[in-house]
């Protein structure tokens, strides 16, 4: 029976993976991710790629909202900045797709710093409204700066090319999207082992006390906005290469609400929560769709009648989680872990 982990060094205490059990589960996850493209059909590979994109973006928003305590409803707009940057660079410069992704992240980070300027004066609901305003301004720019964004028609994106091979199938894209998302999650997890990550948490918990302790609020809040927006920009770039088209309606306010809901449902301030929340928000509507299709033979016009019900059920699931499990799905996972730490001696 293991009731705690005794670490003899600071490095061991700060390690991301501390026990043999965690290493074993990490090995199982790695094997599953490597084997998935060979056993999943095209539809499930499509969903796996979409989950990877959403995990990258939700992880970025979790850094800003979950760890720094700055509510943002502009994640969709930051993704659009990254997607448009990738599309423009690919069309006009023909740069390698990894360079385009990095540039998309940097451009989104620059925009994020500008949008984050009001964070020193306002927070909470007021900051959320400010980010909505920034999203509307960016949407206006995307729609009317036709010479760069293509206006209402948007822009088509050529397939990403790796070592001369165009990545056109979901099988090929999987080997790009999932590793990039995994690296971004790993980067976020490591961020909170550093001074910067701890400063973010201090600002979230008590910003005035953090400032008294010598943490410059404006610098770290803008840095949090920049990192979060960088994640969104890279995710937007992945989205552009995945769907091969970018338009003003690709990233609306609904997308920003989607990612905020993913962070809340998964668990704010938890890397695992961002991953689970993104997967939940992506897959549950599809699972509900399967339910509608299963009863279609027994109900006339089931698709027409139950399609709105599916949306209602999806919304109800989110509300139930918020009411009965406010700390998100990550807390359920932690409870299961604690149970098996003491099993079978727990009463």
Write up what this structure looks like:
This protein has 347 residues and is mostly helical. Helix content is 73%, strand content 2%. The protein contains 15 helices and four strands. The strands form two sheets. The protein has a two-stranded antiparallel ribbon. It has a two-stranded antiparallel ribbon with strand order 2-3. A hairpin with a 2-residue loop joins β2 and β3 (165-166). α3 packs parallel to α8 (170-191), α4 (75-92) packs parallel to α6 and α13 runs antiparallel to α14 (302-324). It starts with 9 loop residues before the first helix and ends in a 5-residue tail after the last helix.
Brief descriptors of the model:
two-stranded antiparallel sheet; two-stranded antiparallel ribbon; 347 residues; globular; mainly alpha
Gist?
Helices cover 73% and strands 2% of the residues.
Instruction: Please give the count of helices.
Output: 15
| Tally of strands | 4
The radius of gyration is 21 Å
Mean pLDDT: 85
Task: Give the arrangement of secondary structure elements.
Blueprint: H1 10-14, H2 20-39, H3 42-67, H4 75-92, H5 97-115, H6 125-144, H7 146-149, E1 155-156, E2 161-162, E3 165-166, H8 170-191, H9 195-205, H10 207-212, H11 217-243, E4 245-246, H12 253-266, H13 271-295, H14 302-324, H15 329-342
Antiparallel strand pairs: 1-4, 2-3
Helix pairs in contact: 3-8, 3-9, 3-11, 3-12, 3-13, 4-5, 4-6, 4-11, 5-11, 8-11, 9-11, 12-13, 13-14
């Amino acid at each position: 029976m293991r009731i705690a982990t005794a670490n003899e060094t600071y490095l061991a205490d700060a390690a991301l993976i501390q026990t043999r059990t965690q290493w074993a589960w990490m090995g199982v996850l790695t094997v599953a991710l490597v084997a998935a493209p060979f056993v999943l059909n095209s539809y499930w590979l499509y969903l796996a790629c979409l989950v990877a994109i959403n995990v990258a973006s939700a992880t970025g928003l979790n850094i800003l909202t979950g760890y720094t305590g700055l509510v943002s409803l502009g994640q969709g707009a930051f993704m659009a900045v990254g997607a448009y940057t990738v599309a423009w660079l690919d069309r006009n410069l023909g740069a390698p797709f990894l360079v385009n992704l990095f540039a998309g992240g940097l451009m989104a980070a620059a925009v994020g710093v500008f949008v984050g300027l009001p964070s020193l004066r306002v927070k909470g609901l007021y900051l959320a409204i400010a980010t909505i305003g920034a999203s509307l301004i960016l949407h206006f720019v995307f729609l009317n700066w036709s010479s760069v964004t293509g206006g209402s028609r948007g822009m088509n994106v050529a397939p990403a090319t790796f070592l001369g091979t165009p990545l056109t199938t979901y099988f090929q894209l999987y080997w790009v999207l999932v590793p990039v998302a995994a690296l971004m999650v790993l980067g976020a997890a490591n961020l909170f082992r550093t001074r910067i990550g701890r400063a973010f948490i201090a600002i979230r918990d008590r910003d005035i006390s953090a400032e008294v302790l010598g943490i410059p609020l404006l610098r770290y809040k803008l840095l949090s906005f920049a990192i979060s927006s960088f994640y969104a920009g890279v995710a937007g770039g992945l989205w552009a290469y995945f769907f091969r088209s970018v338009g003003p309606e690709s990233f609306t306010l609904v997308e920003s609400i989607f990612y905020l809901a993913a962070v809340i449902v998964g668990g704010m301030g938890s890397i695992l929560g961002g991953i689970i929340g993104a997967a939940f928000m992506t897959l549950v509507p599809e699972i509900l769709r399967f339910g509608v299709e299963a009863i279609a033979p027994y109900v006339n016009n089931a698709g027409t009648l139950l399609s709105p019900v599916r949306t209602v059920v999806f919304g109800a699931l989110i509300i139930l989680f918020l009411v009965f499990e406010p700390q998100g799905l990550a807390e359920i996972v932690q409870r299961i872990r604690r149970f098996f730490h003491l099993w079978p001696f727990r009463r």
